C-alpha cells in the first residue's frame, strides 16, 4: 500500500490537484491550539501536507512539533517556508510504520485520506494509540460524509458511529460532536473530537 499511496499523493501535489489544501490552519484546530498552555508537549501531525497547523504551532511557541507525510513534496515546501524547523521532526514516511511516543496527535481529516478498508481503519486506531503516551490525546477533525463504494474519490467518508467503533477499543471519548466552527465550505460535514488513550 505504501508505494501506491505515495505515488498517488505525489502525483496530486505535482498536478496541483490539492482541493483539500485551504492554505491556512483549520479554524477548529487553531481554536484548540489557542487554549493549550504547555508549549513543550511533543506533538505529531500525520498527513500534514503543507503543514499550516504545524506552522501555527511554531508561531505560538511550541518547541516539539513533528510532521509526517507520505509524499515528500509538501514536506519540502514546508521546509522552504520554515528553514529552521528541525529535519529530525520532518517524517517522510508511512504513518503505519512510524515509531515514537507523543503527547498529542492532531488529526486533520487524515483518517479520510487512505483506502477505507476495515483493516486500514482498524490499523489507524491501533497505530494512533501506539504512538501516544499514556493518557495522550488524539484531537481534531473527521469528515462526516457518506462512505461510498467509490475507491477513487477522496476524501473517504464515515460517520460518528463507525469512527467510534474503531476508536473505542483504544480511546475514551471526551467529546466527538458536529463541529460548530468549521470553515464555510465544510460546514455541517465535520466532527470535532478529543480522545484520550485508555
From TrEMBL:
GO terms for biological process: methylation. The keyword Methyltransferase applies. One of its GO terms (molecular function) is S-adenosylmethionine-dependent methyltransferase activity. Keywords: Methyltransferase, Phosphoprotein, S-adenosyl-L-methionine, Transferase. Signal peptide: none annotated. CDD domains: AdoMet_MTases (cd02440). InterPro entries: SAM-dependent_MTases_sf (IPR029063), TPMT (IPR008854). Coiled coil: none annotated. This is Methyltransferase type 11.
